[in-house]
Write a sequence for this structure.
C-alpha cells in the first residue's frame, strides 16, 4: 500500500471533490436513463455510452468505499473471482465486440466525429480499476471530473469535436506535473510499497491474495501460484538465487560497486509471488530494497514496446492492441515539452534516489496462445508529424534519464519461466526450464571461448538459411588492433542474461549486407510470418512479411511494431546462440514457437535491430573471462553521442533469431581469404564445439 501519510494527505485533499464528482455522475446516470436532450441531440447511442460509463464509474466508487471500510477482508476466493470478472467483463471475450472500448463498435454506434474520442475516454476510465485498489483518490477524482466535463460539452446540441478533444488534451497536459513525478517516484522510491506489501505480508497459500493487486486474474496466475506452492523451500530459494546471483555477477562483470546501491526494480508476471518474496529477501541481504511498480494502465503511461512493471493477465489482447496509440489524440510538441520539463524537475528532486538505483530485475513468462492482431482502421494511429515528435521525445527522454541514472552505473538481470497455458506438460516444461537456466557455466565458457577465438580471426561472417529460410547475410566485424588483448565478442554466461549461451557483438555497419529471413517468429508478443529484412551497409532498406493480405498492411505492421515508427534501424547486434539444450526442450515439447526471445535468442544466430547491446554503456570497460577487453561496443550512430546525442540512440532493441532447423552455415572469413566454418547445415563443426550437437541429435 501507499505510505499511510501520503494516502491520508491525498484523501484529505481530494475527498470532497471526489464525493461531489460521484454525486454528479449519479445524476448523469439518472439523466441518461430518462432519455433527455443528450439522446435527441446526438443520437440514442450517446445516451447509452454515458449511461454505461457512468454506471461503471459508480461501480468503481462503490468498490473504493467498501475497500476503505475493510469490507473485503473476509471475501472468499469465489467472491474475489466474481468481483474480478465483474470489473473486467466489458472487454472479455466476445463482450468486447459490443463494447464502447472497441473502436469498430464505437465508430458504428457513435459516428466518426466523436467515436475515437469517446472510445479513448472510456478506455481511460477503465484505468480506475487499479486506482481504486490502490486507493489513489487523485486519479479517481480527476478522471471522474474529466468524464463529467465531456458529458457537459456533449449536452449541448451544437457541441463540436474540438471541444471534446481539448478537454482530453488539457486533462493530460495540466496534470502532467503530478502524474510524471508520481510515475518516477514509483520507480525509485521503495516506500511506494503497495505491491511489496501484498507479496511480503499475504498468506500465499490462500490464492485470494492474487486479487488484491487489482489486475485481471486468469487461470495462468492461479495455476502458477498453486504450482509454486507445491515446491519445497529449497527449490524456491534456488530459483531465486539463480536470478539474484546473476544480478550480482552483473555488477562484478561490469566492475560496478554494488555496495553503493540501495534499490532494485523487480518486474514480473503475477503468480510468482512465492519466488518474488524470496527474491526480495535475497536482494535485501545484498543491501537492496525493492521498488515494484505496476505496468502503465493510463494512456499517458502505456509503453508501445510492451508492459514494463508488474502485471496480471491481459483481459483481451486485441483490446490492448487497439489502444496502443491512444495518445495520438493529444500527443504534440507542446505536450512532449511539458512532460520533459516535468521529468527534468522530478528527476532533479529525486536525484538522491536515482543515484542509488541499481537497475531492473525482470522475470518474463512464456507459453500463452500466440496472438495475431486484427488491424482496425478505426483504431487511433499517429500522424507522420506525431511519429516524428514521438521519436524526438523518446530520444530526449532517454538522454535525460541517462543523465540522472547513467547506464554504465547500473546493471540488470532477466530470466523466464513458462505459464500453465503452455499445455499438459507444464510442470515438466517448468522443471526443464530450470535446468536450462542452470547449465554448467564452465563447460560453456570453454566452448564459447573457442567460438570467439575463431570469430576474432576474421574480417566478416556469412550466415545462410536452409530449406524455406532465404537468409543470405554478410556481417562485417569491428577492426581490431591487438587480438591478444582485445576481442569483438562478449562471452555471455548466466549472469545478467539468463540462460547462458551466446557470443555477441555490435556489427561494423559498412559492409554488413543481405537478407535476414525467418519463416515464423514472435517479437514483443506479436507473431510474424515470413519476416524479411534487407540490409545495406548495416541499415534496413526494405522489410516485409505475409501476415496480411496487402504489402501495405504488412509494411505498416513491421514499421509500427519492429521499427517503432523509425524510417529505418541499424543492425545493433549479431550473436551466435549456443544453448542447444534450450532448443531441444522447445522441440521435445513442441513449444519452440512459444519460447520468449530471452531463450529463443540462445537457440541459433540472432540479429537485433535498433540500439547496440551497449547503449549508454560505451565508455564502460568490460572484459571476457579470459581477460581480453571487449572493443566492439558502438557503431556509426552511437558514436554521435559525442556530437549530436539526439541521433545516437533509437531507444529500441529487437532480437530476431534463426532457429537451428532453418539455419544453413555460419562461416568466418579472414583477410587472407581463409574460410572457417563454425556451423554447417545447422550443426556446430568448429573443433571443440561438437558437444553442443549432442542434444540436437538426441
Amino acid at each position: 500500500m501507499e505510505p499511510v501519510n501520503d494516502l491520508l494527505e491525498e484523501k484529505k485533499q481530494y475527498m470532497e471533490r471526489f464525493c461531489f464528482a460521484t454525486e454528479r455522475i449519479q445524476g448523469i446516470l439518472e439523466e441518461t436513463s430518462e432519455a433527455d436532450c443528450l439522446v435527441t441531440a446526438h443520437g440514442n447511442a450517446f445516451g447509452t455510452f454515458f449511461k454505461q460509463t457512468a454506471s461503471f464509474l459508480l461501480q468503481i466508487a462503490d468498490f473504493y468505499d467498501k475497500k476503505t471500510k475493510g469490507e473485503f477482508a473476509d471475501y472468499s476466493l469465489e467472491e474475489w473471482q466474481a468481483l474480478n470478472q465483474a470489473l473486467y467483463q466489458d472487454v472479455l471475450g466476445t463482450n468486447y465486440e459490443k463494447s464502447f472500448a472497441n473502436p469498430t463498435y464505437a465508430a458504428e454506434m457513435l459516428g466518426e466525429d466523436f467515436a475515437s474520442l469517446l472510445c479513448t475516454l472510456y478506455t481511460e476510465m477503465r484505468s480506475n480499476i487499479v486506482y481504486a485498489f490502490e486507493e489513489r483518490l487523485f486519479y479517481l477524482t480527476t478522471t471522474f471530473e474529466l468524464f463529467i466535463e465531456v458529458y457537459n460539452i456533449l449536452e449541448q446540441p451544437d457541441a463540436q469535436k474540438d471541444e471534446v478533444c481539448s478537454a482530453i488534451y488539457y486533462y493530460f497536459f495540466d496534470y502532467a506535473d503530478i502524474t510524471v513525478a508520481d510515475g518516477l517516484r514509483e520507480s525509485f522510491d521503495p516506500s511506494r510499497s503497495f505491491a511489496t506489501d501484498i507479496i511480503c505480508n499475504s498468506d500465499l497459500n490462500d490464492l485470494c491474495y492474487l486479487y488484491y493487486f487489482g489486475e485481471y486474474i486468469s487461470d495462468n496466475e492461479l495455476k502458477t501460484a498453486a504450482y509454486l506452492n507445491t515446491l519445497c523451500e529449497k527449490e524456491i530459494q534456488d530459483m531465486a538465487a539463480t536470478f539474484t546471483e546473476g544480478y550480482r555477477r552483473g555488477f562484478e562483470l561490469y566492475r560496478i560497486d554494488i555496495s553503493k546501491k540501495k534499490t532494485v526494480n523487480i518486474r514480473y508476471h503475477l503468480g510468482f509471488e512465492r519466488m518474488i518474496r524470496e527474491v526480495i529477501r535475497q536482494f535485501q541481504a545484498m543491501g537492496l530494497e525493492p521498488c515494484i511498480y505496476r505496468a502503465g494502465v493510463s494512456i499517458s503511461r502505456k509503453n508501445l514496446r510492451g508492459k514494463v512493471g508488474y502485471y496480471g493477465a491481459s483481459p483481451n489482447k486485441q483490446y490492448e492492441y487497439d489502444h496502443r496509440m491512444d495518445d495520438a489524440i493529444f500527443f504534440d510538441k507542446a505536450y512532449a515539452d511539458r512532460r520533459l520539463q516535468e521529468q527534468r524537475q522530478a528527476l532533479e528532486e529525486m536525484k538522491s534516489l536515482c543515484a542509488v538505483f541499481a537497475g531492473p530485475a525482470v522475470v518474463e513468462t512464456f507459453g500463452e496462445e500466440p496472438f495475431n492482431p486484427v488491424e482496425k482502421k478505426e483504431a487511433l494511429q499517429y500522424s507522420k508529424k506525431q511519429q516524428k515528435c514521438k521519436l524526438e521525445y523518446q530520444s530526449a527522454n532517454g538522454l535525460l534519464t541517462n543523465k540522472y541514472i547513467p547506464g554504465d552505473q547500473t546493471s540488470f538481470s532477466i530470466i523466464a519461466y513458462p505459464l500453465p497455458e503452455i499445455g499438459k506438460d507444464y510442470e515438466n516444461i517448468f522443471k526443464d526450464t530450470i535446468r536450462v537456466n542452470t547449465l554448467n557455466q564452465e563447460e560453456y565458457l570453454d566452448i564459447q571461448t573457442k567460438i570467439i577465438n575463431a570469430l576474432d580471426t576474421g574480417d566478416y561472417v556469412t550466415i545462410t538459411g536452409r530449406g524455406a529460410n532465404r537468409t543470405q547475410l554478410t556481417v562485417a566485424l569491428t577492426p581490431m588492433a591487438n587480438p591478444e588483448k582485445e576481442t569483438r565478442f562478449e562471452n555471455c554466461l548466466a549472469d545478467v542474461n539468463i540462460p547462458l549461451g551466446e557470443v555477441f557483438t555490435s556489427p561494423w555497419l559498412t559492409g554488413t549486407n543481405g537478407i535476414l529471413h525467418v519463416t515464423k517468429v514472435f517479437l514483443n508478443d506479436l507473431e510474424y510470418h515470413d519476416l524479411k529484412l534487407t540490409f545495406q551497409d548495416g541499415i534496413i532498406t526494405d522489410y516485409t512479411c505475409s501476415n496480411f493480405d496487402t504489402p501495405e498492411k504488412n509494411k505498416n505492421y513491421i514499421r509500427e511494431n519492429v521499427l517503432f515508427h523509425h524510417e529505418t534501424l541499424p543492425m545493433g547486434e549479431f550473436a551466435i546462440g549456443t544453448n542447444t539444450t534450450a532448443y531441444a526442450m522447445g522441440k521435445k515439447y513442441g513449444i519452440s514457437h512459444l519460447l520468449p526471445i530471452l531463450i529463443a535468442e540462445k537457440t541459433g544466430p540472432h540479429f537485433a535491430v535498433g540500439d547496440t547491446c551497449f547503449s549508454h554503456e560505451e565508455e564502460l570497460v568490460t572484459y571476457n573471462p579470459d581477460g581480453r577487453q571487449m572493443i566492439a561496443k558502438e557503431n556509426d550512430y552511437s558514436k554521435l553521442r559525442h556530437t549530436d546525442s539526439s541521433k545516437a540512440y533509437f531507444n529500441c532493441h529487437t532480437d530476431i533469431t534463426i532457429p537451428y532447423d532453418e539455419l544453413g552455415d555460419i562461416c568466418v572469413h579472414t583477410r587472407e581469404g581463409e574460410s572457417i566454418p563454425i556451423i554447417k547445415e545447422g550443426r556446430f563443426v568448429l573443433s571443440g564445439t561438437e558437444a553442443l550437437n549432442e542434444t540436437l541429435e538426441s
Observations:
- Residues 461-697 form one domain.
- Residues 522 and 528 are 6 Å apart (CA to CA).
